[in-house]
Each structure stands twice: as structure tokens, then as C-alpha cells.
Amino acid sequence: QLQLQESGPGLVKPSETLSLTCNVSGGSMSSSPYYWGWIRQPPGKGLEWIGSIYYSGGTFYNPSLKSRVTISVETSKNQFSLKLSSVTAADTAVYYCARVNPLDTGMLRTPGYFQDWGQGALVTVSS
Amino acid sequence: DIVMTQSPDSLAVSLGERATITCKASQSVLYRSNNKNYLAWYQQKPRQPPKLLIYWASTRESGVPDRFSGSGSGTDFTLTISSLQAEDVAVYYCQQYHTPPFTFGQGTRLEAK
Fold first, then answer.
1. Could you tell me the CA-to-CA distances from B46 to A11, A59, B61 in Å, in that order?
2. Which of A5, B13, B81, B85 is spaced 20 to 30 A from A89 at the CA atom?
3. A contacts of B103 (beta carbons < 8 Å)
């Protein structure tokens, strides 16, 4: 049974960089041709896709966040990470990591639906 | 961006009755080369992460009860719960994975009457 667990600081100051890691257990990332993604949910609000990374490193980012987001993968450690720079109060949210089913779309392999989710990590941006 | 609009925003249904939630995409999420609709449904219970219920608009995820069904094509989709159980009280989201940025509906809160 695949499990995902987010970890990182729960409080980040405005203008600083939010950093989260998702640890994957119950399966090897290096032998699984999946995408891995980040989604966030502000308190009491809906879901926003942040970005997804292929196990070999290719990325898709939400254009609304692209200038501030970096997602990386370390298959040797069975984990992937999110960095969001220059945060403001609007970035306060529960951040979820997820395994993303890959799709063969034409000549490309692209991210699909979010198959498995972590429990989420609340990150508050405040001084 | 493809805008996903769900209706209603909230819904109260008696236990054992049918619940229907609709999702409309601002442009088609049907990929013509494989005739698949790139549309998923998720269930989110309080203080829990979302859970995948349905993908390809109508394929139930393993372990999801068969009272949950999805239908529709192109821009108009429906999630139906044939006989509402107490454990189905949750917020339901549709999501398109046809075109990045991958977008979600605003959510429909389902309560038991």
C-alpha cells in the first residue's frame, strides 16, 4: 500500500521560501513511471494544482505560480520536494502531495488524475 | 484555463435517496484521438485529503462502492450516488486533466437531510 507523507515547517515568514518534502513509502519511485504532484487548499476553500514532476525529472507547473515554484525529485531517497518563493499570506494553505497517474497523450507522457494523496501539511505564512 | 463549474454548491439528500452533482467545463475535455474524457471526481471528508472516486469520467477507482457512478462527455458531466449512505457526507470535486493548468471545480457540499 503506497503511502505519502508531507513534512516541513508549519510557519513561514512573508517574503521567505516555503519548503516541503513528500516521503513515499510502500513502493519505489525509481521503478514506477508515475508523475508526482503538489496540490494546495486554503482554509475553507477549494483545491489548486501547483505542479507535477515525472519520476525522471520532467515538470509541469501551474502558470499562475510558475515564477515562484520549483519541484524536484530524489528517487534514491524516495521523496520529492516543493519550494515556493516570496510567499505571502495568500499562500497559507494545506499542501498535499500526490501520486499522479501518467497518461500517454500523443507522443508525450503527461500527468493525469491524482491517484493517491498524502494527509496534507498546513503551512501558515505570518510574521 | 479550463474553468470547471459545479452545481449545486450544496445539496441535502435523505439517506437512501439519489444524489446528483453536475460539473460543466468551459471547453471540451474529450480527447478525440482516444475518445476519452479527461475528467475525475474526488470525495473529501472533513479533515481528510481528497480521495479519487472516478476517472475517465465514468471508471470507478478500485474499492469505490458501485452506488457511485459518473457519466457525461465533452463539457457536461454528472456524479450520481444512487442511494445516499451516512458515510457519503462530504465535499465532492470534479477535476479536468485534459489541459494544464489542471483545474478543479469549486466543490459541492453533500449533506444528509
1. 22, 31, 21
2. A5
3. 49
Strand B51-55 relative to strand B59-60: parallel, antiparallel, unpaired?
A: antiparallel
Residue of A nearest to B98 (CA): A112
d(CA B104, CA B58): 17
> Could you read off the pLDDT of A57-110 as tens digits, one per residue?
899 999 999 999 999 999 999 999 999 999 999 999 999 999 999 998 777 889
Asked if residues B84 and B16 have their Cβ atoms less than 8 Å apart, the reply is yes
Mutating which of A47, A71, A104 best tests the B interface, going by the most B Cβ atoms within 10 A?
A47
Alpha-carbon dihedral sign for residues A42, A44, A45, A48: positive
Identify the band that residue A30 occupies on the pLDDT scale cut at 50, 70 and 90: confident
List the beta bridge partners of residue B31. B36
Q: Give the distance from residue B55's alpha carbon to the nearest chain A alpha carbon, in angstroms.
A: 7
Closest-CA residue to A78 (of A126, A42, A30, A110) = A30
Chain A residues with beta carbon closer than 8 angstroms to that of B61: 115
